[in-house]
Amino acid sequence: MPANAQRLNSPADEREVFLQDMLTALSGRPKQTSPKYFYDEVGSRLFDRICELPEYYPTRTERRILEQHGAEMARVLGPRVMLVEPGSGSSTKVPLILKHLREPAAYVPMEICLEHMVANLGPLEAAFPQLEILPVAADFTRPFSLPTPRLRARRRVVFFPGSTLGNFTPEEARQLLRTLRRVVGHGGAVLLGVDLQKPSEVLIPAYDDAQGVTAAFNLNLLERANRELGADFNIGNFSHRAVWNADAGRIEMHLVSRCPQAVHLAGETFHFATDEAIITEYSHKYTQPALQSLAAETGFALHRTWEDEKGWFSLQYWVAVD
Predict the structure, then answer these.
(1) From the CA atom positions of the chain, what is the Rg in Å?
(2) What is the span of the domain harbouring residue 107?
(3) CATH number for the domain harbouring residue 168
(4) At CA 73, angle to CA 137 and CA 134, rounded to 5?
(5) Is residue 123 domain-resident?
(6) Residue 51 and residue 71 in contact, taking contact as beta carbons nearer than 8 Å
(7) DSSP classification of residue 212
(8) Cβ burial, residue 170 (10 Å; 0-12/13-18/19+)
(9) What is the dihedral of CA 41, 250, 179, 294, to 10 degrees?
(10) Which residues pair with 243 in a beta bridge?
(11) Measured between alpha carbons, how far is 2 from 233 in angstroms, rounded to an integer?
């Protein structure tokens, strides 16, 4: 592990937060967990496979936008930028920006699973040997601080691709964006990837692929609770389901109980009826007017957008306003 890698929370602290969140989730009506718990080492590898599936359009669509417009984006970001990527995962998209940046001050990838993040930084370090890379293990939905690069940055820019914002409820999204506004500070900006609304026949297969990789990714949440928290989920008693909620403008991922059953965790018992679901993820799909309103509500001004030819996906450049 690189000497400059920072872990803002200890493994014991992370386990306790995971445990308390799972107890709260299983006590709820409906039962609902946070998608951030998908991303242990196993889940992170499964998500990398999802991104390569033919049904999963967001990754390849966003990559095409970055390939076509990355140089222009870099010019807009300007020189000596400190680029911060919350939820960086395998850091596979950021090179399409980094290779065009002029004298970048640093790249700060942030991920809950430090081991997975660091294991994937080798190619980036080889491709950009002069770039200071400062990995941080943190939950970006909670308060965090950034490292100080050797080269003083002229501005901070949060690179937030992958439509991750869609995983949050509208109020949670506003809270997160206000947090990012404080992080970038005066003169900072956000380069935000967002998935746009489109027909359900395109959306549902992207979250319920024919090979079952997304199902394995979803079910791994329960396996992780068994591994790390000592829960006793019977994985075979749950199935994966993806639903388009047209009224809310979002895909929902569920883990559905196949039968009446009880699950035990930390001395507590949680009962499931047949067909009762744990909601494990929201993936909101946006319209351009909604995005403009969201920017204005959270301390940003929308300056530029880049989209694919079908209008399926958008990269948005929001500048912090005083």
Answers:
(1) 20
(2) 57-198+285-320
(3) 3.40.50.150
(4) 20
(5) yes
(6) no
(7) S
(8) middle
(9) 150
(10) 252
(11) 36
d(CA 18, CA 232): 16
**Residue 51 counted as domain residue:** no
Q: pTM for this one?
A: 0.88
Those residues with Cβ within 8 angstroms of residue 241's Cβ, 6 or more apart along the chain or in another chain: 208, 253, 254, 255, 256, 277
Those residues whose C-beta lies under 8 Å from the C-beta of residue 174, and which sit 6 or more positions away, are 294, 297, 298
CB 45 within 8 A of CB 174: no
Tens of pLDDT, residues 128-146: 999 999 999 888 888 788 9
The residue whose two tokens read 């749950």 is: 238
260 is a domain residue: no
Return the C-alpha torsion angle 213, 217, 219, 222, nearest 10: 160
Q: How many domains does the chain have?
A: 1
Mean of pLDDT values over 79-99:
94
What is the tens place of the pLDDT at every residue in 152-165?
999 999 999 999 99
In the predicted structure, residue 3 carries a pLDDT above the cut 90: no
The angle, 0 to 180 degrees and rounded to 10, between the axes of the packed helices 288-297 and 170-184 is 50
> In this structure, is residue 65 part of a structural domain?
yes
The predicted-structure confidence for 191-212, as pLDDT tens digits, reads as follows 999 999 999 999 999 999 999 9
